[in-house]
Design a protein that fits this description.
single chain; alpha/beta; D-Maltodextrin-Binding Protein, domain 2; 5-stranded mixed sheet; 9 helices; 14 strands; elongated; Solute-binding_3/MltF_N; Solute-binding protein family 3/N-terminal domain-containing protein; signal
């Protein structure tokens, strides 16, 4: 699998994801974000002291990327008779081959819900990730639904639907040091680990200037350092960290601290459905269908069925 980079700092959206656990996705619109989670700017000197809690709360965060104040008009769907979705072969739980040999996963089921909402025939073909863009531009498919991160480079090759999930960043600490909220002044003098050269490291160096930032070559080294107590926190992709926290590799050592960070300049615009450039009929139909699925609660039902662990 060839991951698509989520930002100009070349951080992989798909880092170290396992099929052994669920995950959650982020309600990116600010009107869905509780005030305590709307982070990213340095706090003022009047900020309260950090709250350290013995056991972190784990509420289910239901994703919502659609503004109810911007209801899309129903497009002309008469020109759509079939949508040929393309997805990739091995990125569970988003894409994988089911026991019956057919495509399965969150992206696959979302594609089927979209076709049901539009009331159009739908096919789903699995291909290697690196061949998807060429397949669309070679008219071997109509839409890519494969956790494709929207980047300026890909916008030069494809048009995209509205985002249907994104990958925020988040802090993780040992369970006996979990903070309800993380602000720059709370981490003064603390050792915070991040992957060298990543957008997460760049974000820390920009905003958490009083922390002692420790760089690691890869995820395994980063997480092992936290398990051993060699750093106080690590900062990285919340989706892959959710898998690690709730999987066996973590040894039940650690938990999320504070809320998510979603600045698109560092952590990407989100994940959308890619279509051939200029195919506005299909792009608008996809946007309309996804809004309708969210409005009816069907997107939420799908999300809860797949993602039982919230990194938010």
């Amino acid at each position: 699998m060839q991951p698509q980079m989520v930002s100009s700092f070349n951080v992989q959206l798909r880092g170290a994801v396992h099929a052994a656990a669920g995950l959650a996705v982020w309600a990116a619109l600010t009107w869905f974000v509780p005030p305590a989670l709307a982070q990213g700017a340095p706090a003022t000197s009047q900020s309260p002291s950090p709250a350290v809690i013995a056991q972190p709360a784990a509420p289910q965060a239901v994703p919502g990327f659609w503004d109810p104040r911007r209801r899309p008009d129903r497009p002309d769907l008469s020109r759509l008779t079939v949508i040929r979705f393309l997805t990739e072969t091995d990125y569970p739980p988003f894409n994988f081959t089911g026991p019956d040999g057919n495509p399965a996963g969150f992206n696959v089921d979302l594609a089927r819900l979209i076709c049901d909402e539009i009331k159009v025939a739908c096919t789903i073909q699995m291909r290697r990730f690196e061949t998807l863009v060429d397949a669309i531009n070679g008219n071997r498919g109509d839409a890519i639904i494969a956790s494709l991160a929207v980047t300026p480079q890909l916008r030069a090759k494809l048009d995209f639907s509205d985002p249907y999930y994104r990958s925020p960043a988040r802090f993780v600490s040992r369970k006996d040091a979990v903070m309800a909220e993380v602000r720059p002044e709370y981490l003064e003098g603390k050792k915070v680990g991040a992957i060298a050269g990543s957008s997460h490291e760049a974000y820390l160096k920009t905003l958490f200037t009083d922390a002692q930032i420790v760089s690691f070559p890869n995820d395994d080294a980063l997480r092992l350092a936290l398990r051993r107590g060699e750093v106080d926190f690590i900062f990285g992709d919340a989706i892959s960290l959710a898998f690690w926290i709730n999987g066996t590799d973590s040894g039940d050592c650690c938990a999320f601290s504070g809320g998510p960070f979603t600045e698109s300049r560092y952590f990407g615009e989100g994940v959308g459905i890619g279509v051939k450039r200029g195919n506005d009929v299909l792009r608008q139909a996809l946007n309309w269908a996804m809004f309708r699925l969210w409005e009816k609660g069907r997107y939420t039902d799908l999300w809860l069925r797949y993602f039982s662990v919230s990194p938010f």
